[in-house]
Amino acid sequence: MPRSVNSVASRKRRKKILKAAKGYFGRRKNVYTVAKNAVDKGMLYSYRDRKNKKRTFRALWILRINAGARQFGMSYSQFMGKIKANNIELNRKVLADLAMNHPEAFKAIVDKIK
User: Fold this and answer.
1) Quick check: helix, strand or coil at residue 74?
2) Number of domains in the chain
3) Which CATH number goes with the domain that contains 98?
4) How many CB atoms lie under 10 A from the CB of residue 106?
């Protein structure tokens, strides 16, 4: 009995990898074995960096809040401590946006907690 190879499924599997490698440079886009390694590595990076993006944005928000608070003579930690003590339910993302784009609203928050 001849050996049965499911070439339809094999081709589909390879095409899926090559489609994911679209836009890569050189042999990474059109040689299956090279493309498979590149796509696997890219998927690992994308998984890892979806987590890192949250970390990076939180750090950016903290920098912006710190810069905004220091204009009014407070450090970031003092500012956040007073925010929590006064039960102001604004997260860092919103506070950073206020500090950056709406300084008068941020000043009102600072005046309220002082």
Assistant:
1) coil
2) 1
3) 1.10.1900.20
4) 22
Using CB atoms within 10 A of its CB, is residue 64 exposed (0-12), middle (13-18) or buried (19+)? buried
Query: Which structure tokens are listed for 43?
Result: 């998927």
Residue 3 belongs to some domain of the structure = no
- State how far the Cα of 32 lies from the Cα of 18, in Å rounded to an integer: 7
What does the angle CA 68 – CA 73 – CA 76 come to, to the nearest 5 degrees? 55
CA distance 91 to 80: 10
The verdict on residue 13 lying in a domain is yes
| Average pLDDT of the residues in 28-43 | 97
Token representation of residue 34: 């090279």
92 within domain boundaries:
yes
Which residue bears the tokens 């204009």? Answer: 71
Calpha distance 99→65 (Å, rounded)? 6
pLDDT in tens, 36-86: 999 999 999 999 999 999 999 999 999 999 999 999 999 999 999 999 999
- Full-model pTM: 0.77
Q: List the one residue out of 43, 42, 76, 31 whose CA is nearest residue 58.
A: 76
